Amino acid sequence: xxxxxxxxxxxxxxxxxxxxxxxxxxxxxxxxxxxxxxxxxxxxxxxxxxxxxxxxxxxxxxxxxxxxxxxxxxxxxxxxxxxxxxxxxxxxxxxxxxxxxxxxxxxxxxxxxxxxxxxxxxxxxxxxxxxxxxxxxxxxxxxxxxxxxxxxxxxxxxxxxxxxxxxxxxxxxxxxxxxxxxxxxxxxxxxxxxxxxxxxxxxxxxxxxxxxxxxxxxxxxxxxxxxxxxxxxxxxxxxxxxxxxxxxxxxxxxxxxxxxxxxxxxxxxxxxxxxxxxxxxx
Length: 282
Known about the structure:
This protein is an alpha/beta fold. It has helices at about 45-55, 70-75, 95-105, 120-140, 145-155, 165-170, 175-185, 210-220, 220-225, 240-255, 265-275; strands spanning about 5-10, 25-30, 30-35, 35-40, 60-65, 80-85, 110-115, 160, 190-195, 200-210, 235, 260-265, 280.
């Protein structure tokens, strides 16, 4: 039976990403509630419709994490499972997966289940999945060693957000309406990061203008370049391929990085980053 990697839908990898690797990959969807409309974050979701609905709805939207049984159904499909979830600092998804793991292990104590709180979201989860893929394919490590190595790798990752539409922050009460209006009028964009200990979002800088904001994000990669000659970078975007490609080009030209990947966001990360948002992990 093939090893199975399971993520939630905050991970923006296509379902067929590991199809040629002899590794099963499945995604357990979250739900996004905008007024009376419930969006299921699976392959059928239309992110442009989601963004439009959030802009039209005057109140705060919300999300609902998967049930333990939804995770358990995937865990029962393989004897060897690796589960990577969105940060527990923003969602109850990790706890739902943990309950599911306990349920399945009670049914069959021989199953192997590695459970990982990414303390981040999509780009960091993608990097973790890429590492898993490489270690599983290499066949050099047993399950326990891979889990140990992945836990250590997760601690090395940095996650950055560039937010360009602040309306969700205003609606959720995280930013006052006046501050949001002023920031939008002056094209002030917050660059945020996920904290390494709790996976919560904190503002690092407030930059005026897209060009300066992208340059600032590139500057934040420099410290890692001093200790690592090469490392992969993942960029995800919400309806913003052009700026994602600009960011990729800046990273490649300045640091000669060879592995910079771009993926469009699905529903959950679009919900958090909003229209034109960019998220980067390295």
